[in-house]
Specification:
Oligomer: single chain
Helix content: 25-40%
Structural class: alpha/beta
Bound molecules: (2R,3S,4R,5S)-2-(hydroxymethyl)piperidine-3,4,5-triol
Strand order of the largest sheet: 11-10-9-6-5-4-13-12
Number of strands: 23
Length: 540
């Protein structure tokens, strides 16, 4: 009897009910009054993502990671779908593993961002099926300037495009069939870090002929250039621009085929680089040599935006550890035509960069890479991001509602920066990082005594009302003062409650204790383990 009930339960959980299919709107990226929102189940959603390793998207490996995803406090798992696994023989598709993973992700209460490893993976063709790899006549590769084929398919080839389009369309059609009712999958990455690694462009005779001709009129007009040959118009970056033009069109056509079947939000991710742009100022930075040529790097963004209308977002993968470059890339990829989405990042800076991303760049998603890796315990850098996600997660609807306004601000510690002043409507807030005597003994203090440490204090403040704030973060104290020019000179805390939102309702973890017994002023302390504090102030 029990067995039977379980079977019925499973059948209900995994079957598609037409009524349900209609009840949940498709995930969508919408732009309203200049602000982007990712809508999931009809509500604004901020993706707390985590990407699994490149070889992890197999059912038994994913299933071993459920507890890891929980420990990371993710709401979305980013995982690959490999072309060579779903279409091992041309035209014969195998979605068994795909289905098992998707059902598992769904059963964990998570959403999915699926990453199409098709023609391109890190500027190469490693996840194409063997029948593609072994038939270079039918599926031509990029030829380098010496005429030698490289390990990357040519974006100039119609047969390459058609084969990828067929496989991608089959995957999207299948996805629609098994997920339309549940909407587990909220977005699709079309290809992975596309570009040609090993040559700046295809030097096949046909490519050379096109390269020697005029740059297309529609591109010239979109980029507001004067007509001429590729070389005349784009000079030093002509070869890269040429490759980006054909590559972005190729990927746009793959995405378009999928959108016609099931129009989920789409994006491409970027192995960043930028000849002369300082995106990698610590090393030689050359298309086709140190980064895949033709990808949507910062100086190709205008081209990609104009030439790939079926790609909704361009997402830079950010592995930089210096804040100058990290912030530059956040800034470059936040545009009126592109919301910030960070689908790969990691190591020391990422936990605090998440706060910049949410508040200063209105990120719709943020995901560290390699969330399933490592041993039993979370690595310290992953633990810090997991703590970020834990602290902000229940307030995401509020955060999403305030993004892009003056009512959501972040203060982030950097080397040499001990505090940050933030201005709100009625109050100024001074966030002091690692305030002395406030850290739990033996944690930050001991680490600091041992030598230089990664800056880690971070706070996010949301103005909920004229005198109400939500203060979230780590290793900081926040002091409030009425704005200058108001009728008041000082502020006082009326309510200070640590807690979280449960189904949208604030739940304090303990009765509200005001922190002013010691005459210290309106100070909110955020401990090293992090917390969310709701306060009400008054001015006098
Ligand atoms: C960037 C790629 O997009 C990922 O698939 C993965 O290979 C990471 N690099 C590894 O750091």
């Amino acid at each position: 009897m029990k067995q039977k009930l379980i079977r019925i339960g499973l059948a209900l959980a995994f079957s598609i009910s037409p009524a349900l299919a209609q009840s949940k709107p498709i995930p969508q990226l919408v732009k309203n009054a200049g602000k982007f929102r990712l809508m999931v189940d009809g509500k604004p959603f901020v993706m707390l993502g985590g990407q699994v390793g490149n070889f992890s998207a197999f059912p038994e490996i994913m299933e071993r990671s459920w507890s890891r995803f929980k420990a990371m406090n993710l709401n979305t798992v980013e995982y690959p779908v490999y072309w060579n696994v779903i279409e091992p023989e041309e035209g014969k598709f195998d979605f068994r593993g795909f289905d098992q993973i998707l059902r598992g992700v769904r059963s964990q209460g998570l959403r999915a961002d699926v990453l199409w490893f098709g023609t391109w993976k890190n500027g190469a063709m490693d996840w194409t099926p063997d029948w593609v790899k072994s038939d270079p006549k039918r599926f031509p590769r990029v030829l380098d300037s010496g005429g030698k084929p490289i390990r990357s398919l040519s974006p100039m080839s119609k047969s390459n495009l058609e084969a990828d389009q067929k496989a991608y369309s089959a995957m999207i059609r299948h996805l629609r069939e098994i997920d339309e009712a549940d909407r587990t999958v909220i977005m699709v990455q079309v290809e992975n870090e596309p570009g040609s690694l090993g040559s700046v462009r295809d030097f096949s005779p046909e490519s050379n002929r096109l390269f020697d001709g005029l740059a297309p009129a529609q591109l010239i007009s979109a980029l507001k250039k004067k007509p001429g040959t590729w070389k005349e118009v784009f000079g030093r970056i002509a070869d890269e621009t040429f490759n980006a033009y054909y590559l972005s069109h190729y990927i746009d056509q793959v995405a378009q085929a999928g959108k016609q079947i099931y129009p989920l939000p789409t994006y491409v991710n970027v192995w960043n680089g930028g000849y002369g742009t300082n995106d990698n100022f610590e090393k030689f930075d050359r298309p086709g040599e140190t980064y895949p040529s033709g990808g949507a790097v910062s100086h190709m963004l205008d081209l990609w935006k104009a030439n790939a209308p079926n790609i909704d977002m361009i997402a830079s993968d950010i592995y930089h550890q210096n804040p100058i470059t990290y912030l530059k890339i956040l800034n470059d990829y936040t545009r009126p035509d592109n919301p910030l989405l960070v689908v790969e990042t990691g190591r020391g800076i990422a936990a605090r960069a998440f706060f910049y991303a949410l508040a200063d760049f209105s990120a719709i998603g943020f995901g560290p890479f390699g969330v399933d890796g490592g041993g039993e315990a979370l690595r310290p850098d992953m633990a810090a991001i997991a703590a970020d996600f834990r602290v902000v997660r229940s307030a995401l609807p509020i955060i999403a509602g305030l993004q892009g306004t003056e009512k959501l601000k972040a203060a982030v510690e950097e080397t040499g920066t001990g505090a940050r002043n933030l201005i709100f409507t009625n109050y100024d807030a001074l966030v002091r990082f690692r305030p002395p005597g406030r850290q739990p003994a033996g944690s930050v203090g001991a680490a600091a005594a041992a030598g230089p440490v990664e800056p880690s204090a971070r706070a996010l403040i949301a103005e909920l009302g004229p005198d109400e704030f939500l203060v979230m973060g780590f290793e900081s104290s926040v002091e409030f003062r009425p704005v200058q020019g108001s009728a008041f000179t000082a502020a006082q805390l009326l309510v200070e409650e640590t807690g979280e939102y449960v189904d949208g309702v604030w739940k304090p973890s303990a009765p509200g204790l005001k922190a002013q017994g010691d005459y210290s002023g309106p100070l909110v302390n955020l401990p090293a383990i992090g917390s969310m504090v709701k306060i009400k102030l008054m001015s006098y």
